[in-house]
């Protein structure tokens, strides 16, 4: 029982990341009709915003300490963060430790800008082009973005720890009647799940309850009519692109303590998130979220030793297997609309 | 057919003839000139450095490349000579090899067997390389080793830790300086016994491919021999990123040790996540829960940051060793690049020198002469003390280092990974040696050395 | 001639000439020159890959170019074909004939199954289904199916394998009834050296055959039917026509092409690994097709050639080579140029690939072939002649 609870938690956690990426993909697809293969790269850039925040906070000046020597026997050069002169050494350390949550203030403007620049600079010219061209040009962009990140940050994963307050684990089991150590779960993963839930809720609320969102939804349903009503739908859609990029970026930045950012993480997530979107049904926001959580939880269950003992290797293929089954039984995924991306 | 031989390669390629029933590649046949592939005829000899420059192991590959370039400089008499000054053999004097200057070409393996073989083929067929060196994965090493065997050039494997490289898949033209999974386990076991006792239950998470399996098999065998129990071995997909579904059940499984048979980015993630799940600070069965990472590298340690504190693992070599060879190498590498060399860099550097020395001793670039010179060759002064290239499987035997992750001693961010690993034991060579027909290495045959043409 | 129109026949002749003379054409610089060491691509291993990936993408183009169905799992057939071929080497002998035959058959069977299931959906749903099948094949081949595939190490022939048809003294490398694939002859002319290898010419002949077959398919009623499906499948269905069998045949033919390519890869180099089936390998096939020009006859060969060239030649240009190139210049200029060029070569070759790809998709939706046509048109306006490729593209346009 405790094992199942744990895997549900894991699934919710994995599912949060899938759902956030899939949500952004669907937003872009639903509003602009563009298939964005660079969305994984946006997630990756978000994660590297967290790394950048860490680097910014620890920007330092070099102090030569003649009493100590480095490994070559030269006088030791130690780096002292500029922050230390403002907040003191301890204050600087604890501030740097908070770089992941703090990076949110960096992620939002950066991602809005990246999204805006992508849409205005590139995607705009592809509205009338076939979906295949959109896939390809964004795929090319994804390669370019990831190579730039590699050139700047290297190929090694970069540790970006959660703040000390959230970095331990909590024995959840004791709250719900299990014995001690039965359901121990990292705090940051719970934070991540909560954070994702808030973002997802915010996006839905935004679309559901604001005039802006209403127009966007109308545009998703019938772009031409909305245009004829004299509404500049394009401008709103540009903003939606920025919003989707910001959602992916936030998902990436907050994910940094869970999986250390590396330059190819975007590609790793891309394929999975596309499967998620398609299983959810192209163009359906609730579908994307539902499929994200569902596949996450199924993957958790498939990784259980008891399941693997019967079906070895099932954990490596379960997502694809489920995708095939769903697409064969439900032609447009869980909640897809007819006629979308079927030609 | 023209017979003019203006160029170096022109000579090599003169008049090769197609022949039915010929068993060897003849494209670089140099009839009655030399009798082996890519015999250097001009005033240079070309090495091929085939390392991952893109993909997950790119950093490691680039570090290998740095060391290889340094080795070439030392062979050509540029710089301070590094380990040439401490090497027990004195045949190399900085004038190249057998009077020929050393040149090199580089290739990108992408850590994919197909690409690595394509790159190696290009080095052999196009650039006239006589030796291929480098690589950062066992699959690639085995693939390229097989290719070099068929083409008739020498392969000096880079970072490859699977037992198979000099076991099931050993080849006469291939040599491995790096240690292997069996040796890691043999070196770790006594230290683990001392630290954690004999009554422990180990839970293994294993990367689901050949290296992971041999690593797990070796660790299980070595720890079970001292009384530990292996409660569970769970295979995990390579590149999973998030290992939480595999780590979550560990704490409640009754095990009190977690062995992470992962490497590279997978290890960084699985260790970080295991620490997040609180494994390092729990008590199970009345004992402190512990994590073990059998194979360490500086770059992994760098990626895992403070999570490696108190975690044991093993290494082929470390820059903190205090022998003369190590000091000389660290000095020349450090002065050129500004940070210490990794153990992958060390292996590739040493192998380049060892190859050069073997050629000098043999007096010929002929692969078969080189093989003969390297087989059962005993040397010192390259770190790790007295070292032997065993003739029967081309595996190097030397002292193995047991490492423990510690808090950074210098507090310097650039040294994370380098000074966050501490040498706790230099396990003597005798302790990690095994019979060449050991079951974990059985099933392979070196075959005959192949000089190519 | 050969059942082709004169224009198509001319195109075929061009391809035949280019493939047969490739060992010469691709070695434009003297071997020992700096340019030759950097840019010559006429060595057997790479020539083989040009031909093999040409075959693969020609096959992919029959599916994607004619029907518009984007398979994102095509590498699976390549991998399956390679595994089949190596198993033939292990069980029978190093003779490539049974190996290549079986690889085509196995890939064909595999594509019947995957095609039958995947073709029940269209558009992106089809793409994701093919992707899912390929990823499952990859994951299983890498781990669980190791007894069959030898996992990460890759399937290869060991001395202990049965090889029941191999007599004593049989070649220990792939051969065609005793003629080893690796045997070759070298022609030296001044500073140039041209190597002609049996293996490459086998691939070249296969490529020519594959290309010929693809022209025939493009021009056949079957090809017309596929184009009709591409332009409007619903309408085809309304006319009472069952489009399924046509689609399935296109998928199978395309899969068999990939199987042939896989078999040839194994015949040239008898080792195969699971990563041949990974989704990035499938993505690479799509990239090659688009880069060359989808739906054109010659595009696939161009696209695969460019990518393989980048991967094998540009990735080898390291800082040392750059220093050689610019060594004659004054130091500041030399360093400046190296600083400028270095990010795009060597380990940065992916960046070049990504940029090239974006440029092509943005400015040349018809791929590099279209770029060539535009250039040709520029000259043709003066001379008044139209190339075969141009007309081919024009016909493609009108057909779409």
From TrEMBL, chain A:
One of its GO terms (molecular function) is transmembrane transporter activity. InterPro entries: ABC_transp_permease, BCAA_transport_permease. Its main location: membrane. One of its GO terms (cellular component) is plasma membrane. GO terms for biological process: amino acid transport. The chain crosses the membrane at residues 15-35, 42-64, 95-114, 190-216, 237-258, 270-297, 309-328. It is found in: Cell membrane. Keywords: Amino-acid transport, Cell membrane, Membrane, Transmembrane, Transmembrane helix, Transport. PANTHER family: ABC TRANSPORTER ATP-BINDING PROTEIN, BRANCHED-CHAIN AMINO ACID TRANSPORT SYSTEM PERMEASE PROTEIN LIVH. Belongs to the binding-protein-dependent transport system permease family. LivHM subfamily. This is Amino acid/amide ABC transporter membrane protein 1, HAAT family. It comes from Loktanella salsilacus.
From TrEMBL, chain B:
It comes from Loktanella salsilacus. Pfam families: Peripla_BP_6. Residues 44-405 form the Leucine-binding protein domain. Keywords: Amino-acid transport, Signal, Transport. This is Amino acid/amide ABC transporter substrate-binding protein, HAAT family. SUPFAM superfamilies: Periplasmic binding protein-like I. Belongs to the leucine-binding protein family. GO terms for biological process: amino acid transport. Gene3D superfamilies: 3.40.50.2300. The keyword Nucleus does not apply. The keyword Transport applies.
From TrEMBL, chain C:
GO terms for molecular function: branched-chain amino acid transmembrane transporter activity. Its main location: membrane. The chain crosses the membrane at residues 9-26, 46-64, 71-89, 95-117, 124-145, 198-218, 246-265, 285-310, 348-369. CDD domains: TM_PBP1_LivM_like. It is found in: Cell membrane. The keyword Transmembrane applies. The keyword Transmembrane helix applies. One of its GO terms (cellular component) is plasma membrane. It is a multi-pass membrane protein. Keywords: Cell membrane, Membrane, Transmembrane, Transmembrane helix. This is Amino acid/amide ABC transporter membrane protein 2, HAAT family.
């Amino acid at each position: 029982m405790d094992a199942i609870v744990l895997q549900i938690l894991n699934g919710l956690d994995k599912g949060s990341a899938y759902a956030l990426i899939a949500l952004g993909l669907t937003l872009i697809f639903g509003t602009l009709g563009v298939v964005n293969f660079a969305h994984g790269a946006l997630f990756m850039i978000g994660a590297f915003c967290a790394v950048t925040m860490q680097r910014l906070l620890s920007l330092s000046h070099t102090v030569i300490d003649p009493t100590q020597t480095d490994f070559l026997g030269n006088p030791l050069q130690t780096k002292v963060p500029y922050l230390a002169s403002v907040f003191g050494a301890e204050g600087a350390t604890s501030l740097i430790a908070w770089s992941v949550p703090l990076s949110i203030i960096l992620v939002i403007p950066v991602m809005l800008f990246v999204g805006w620049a992508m849409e205005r600079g590139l995607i705009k010219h592809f509205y009338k082009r076939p979906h295949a061209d959109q896939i390809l040009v964004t795929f090319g962009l994804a390669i370019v973005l990831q190579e730039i990140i590699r050139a700047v940050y290297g190929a090694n994963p970069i540790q970006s720890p959660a703040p000390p307050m959230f970095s331990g684990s909590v024995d959840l089991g004791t709250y719900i009647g299990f014995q001690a150590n039965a359901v121990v779960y990292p705090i940051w993963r719970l934070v991540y799940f909560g954070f994702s839930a808030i973002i997802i809720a915010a996006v839905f609320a935004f679309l559901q309850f604001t005039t802006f969102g209403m127009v966007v939804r109308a545009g998703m349903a019938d772009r031409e009519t909305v245009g004829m009503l004299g509404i500049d739908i394009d401008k709103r859609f540009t903003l939606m692109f920025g919003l989707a990029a910001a959602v992916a970026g936030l998902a990436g930045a907050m994910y940094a303590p869970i999986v250390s950012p590396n330059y190819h993480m975007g590609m790793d997530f891309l394929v999975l998130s596309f499967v998620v979107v398609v299983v959810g049904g192209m163009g359906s926001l609730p579908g994307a979220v539902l499929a994200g959580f569902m596949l996450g939880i199924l993957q958790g269950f498939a990784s259980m030793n008891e399941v693997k003992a019967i079906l070895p290797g099932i954990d490596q293929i379960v997502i694809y297997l489920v995708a095939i089954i769903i697409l064969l039984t439900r032609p447009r995924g869980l909640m897809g609309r007819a006629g979308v991306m079927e030609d | 057919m023209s017979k003019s031989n203006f160029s170096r390669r022109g000579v090599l390629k003169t008049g090769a003839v197609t022949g039915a029933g010929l068993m060897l590649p003849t494209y670089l046949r140099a009839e009655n000139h030399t009798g082996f592939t890519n015999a250097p005829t001009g005033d240079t000899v070309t090495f091929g450095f085939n390392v991952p420059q893109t993909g997950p192991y790119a950093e490691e590959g680039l570090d290998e490349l740095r060391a290889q370039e340094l080795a070439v400089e030392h062979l050509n008499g540029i710089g301070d000579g590094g380990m040439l000054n401490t090497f027990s053999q004195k045949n190399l004097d900085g004038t190249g090899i057998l009077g020929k200057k050393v040149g090199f070409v580089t290739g990108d393996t992408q850590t994919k067997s197909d690409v690595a073989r394509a790159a190696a083929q290009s080095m052999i067929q196009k650039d006239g390389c006589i030796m291929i060196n480098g690589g950062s994965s066992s699959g690639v090493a085995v693939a390229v080793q097989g290719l070099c065997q068929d083409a008739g050039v020498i392969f000096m494997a880079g970072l490859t830790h699977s037992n198979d490289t000099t076991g099931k898949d050993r080849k006469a033209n291939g040599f491995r300086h790096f240690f292997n999974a069996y040796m890691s386990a043999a070196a770790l076991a006594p230290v683990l016994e001392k630290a954690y006792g004999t009554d422990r239950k180990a839970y293994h998470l294993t990367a689901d491919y050949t290296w992971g399996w041999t690593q797990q098999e070796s660790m299980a065998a070595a720890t079970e021999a001292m009384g530990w129990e292996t409660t569970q071995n769970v295979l995990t997909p390579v590149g999973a990123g998030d290992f939480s579904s595999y780590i979550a059940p560990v704490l409640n499984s009754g095990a009190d040790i977690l062995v992470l048979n992962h490497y590279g980015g997978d290890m960084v993630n699985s260790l970080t996540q295991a620490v997040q799940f609180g494994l390092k600070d729990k008590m199970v069965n009345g004992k402190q829960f512990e994590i073990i990472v059998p194979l360490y590298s500086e770059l992994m340690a760098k990626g895992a940051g403070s999570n490696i504190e108190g975690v044991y693992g093993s290494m082929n070599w470390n820059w903190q060793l205090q022998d003369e060879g190590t000091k000389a190498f660290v000095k020349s590498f450090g002065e050129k690049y500004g940070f210490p060399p990794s153990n992958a860099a060390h292996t590739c550097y040493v192998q380049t020198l060892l190859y050069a020395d073997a050629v000098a001793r043999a007096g010929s670039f002929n692969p078969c002469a080189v093989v003969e010179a390297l087989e059962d060759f005993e040397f010192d002064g390259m770190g790790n003390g007295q070292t032997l290239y065993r003739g029967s499987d081309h595996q190097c035997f030397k002292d193995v280092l047991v490492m423990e992750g510690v808090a950074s001693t210098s507090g310097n961010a650039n040294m994370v990974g380098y000074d966050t690993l501490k040498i706790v034991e230099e396990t003597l060579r005798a302790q990690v040696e095994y019979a060449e027909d050991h079951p974990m290495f059985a099933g392979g045959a070196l075959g005959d050395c192949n000089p190519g043409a | 001639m050969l059942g082709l129109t004169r224009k198509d026949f001319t195109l075929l002749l061009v391809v035949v000439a280019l493939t047969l003379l490739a060992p010469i054409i691709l070695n434009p610089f003297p071997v020992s020159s700096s340019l030759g060491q950097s840019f010559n691509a006429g060595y057997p291993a790479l020539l083989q890959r040009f031909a093999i990936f040409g075959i693969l993408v020609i096959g992919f183009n029959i599916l994607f170019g004619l029907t518009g169905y984007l398979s994102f799992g095509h590498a699976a057939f390549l991998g399956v074909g390679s595994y089949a071929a190596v198993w033939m080497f292990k069980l029978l002998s190093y003779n490539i004939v049974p190996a290549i035959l079986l690889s085509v058959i196995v890939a064909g069977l595999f594509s019947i199954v995957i095609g039958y299931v995947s073709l029940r959906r269209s558009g992106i749903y089809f793409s994701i289904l093919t992707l899912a099948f390929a990823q499952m094949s990859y994951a299983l081949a890498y781990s669980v199916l190791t007894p069959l595939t030898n996992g990460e190490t890759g399937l290869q022939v060991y001395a202990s394998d049965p090889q029941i048809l191999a007599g004593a003294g049989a070649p220990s490398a792939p051969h065609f009834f005793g003629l080893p694939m690796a045997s070759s002859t070298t022609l030296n002319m001044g500073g140039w050296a041209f190597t002609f290898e049996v293996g490459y010419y086998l691939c070249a002949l296969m490529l020519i055959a594959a290309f010929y077959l693809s022209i025939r398919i493009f021009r056949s009623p079957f090809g017309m039917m596929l184009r009709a499906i591409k332009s409007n499948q619903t309408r085809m269905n309304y006319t009472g026509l069952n489009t399924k069998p046509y689609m399935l045949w296109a998928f199978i033919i395309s899969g068999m092409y990939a199987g042939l390519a896989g078999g040839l890869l194994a015949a040239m180099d008898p080792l195969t690994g699971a990563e041949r089936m990974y989704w990035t390998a499938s993505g690479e096939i799509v990239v090659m097709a688009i880069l060359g020009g989808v739906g054109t006859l010659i595009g696939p060969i161009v696209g695969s050639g460019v990518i393989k060239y980048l991967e094998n030649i540009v990735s080898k240009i390291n800082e040392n080579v750059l220093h050689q190139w610019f060594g004659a210049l004054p130091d500041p200029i030399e360093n400046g140029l190296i600083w400028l060029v270095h990010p795009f070569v060597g380990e940065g070759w992916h960046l070049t690939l990504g940029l090239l790809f974006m440029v092509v998709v943005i400015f040349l939706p018809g791929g590099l072939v279209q770029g060539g046509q535009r250039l040709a048109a520029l000259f043709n306006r003066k001379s008044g002649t139209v190339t075969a490729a141009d007309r081919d593209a024009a016909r493609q346009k009108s057909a779409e």
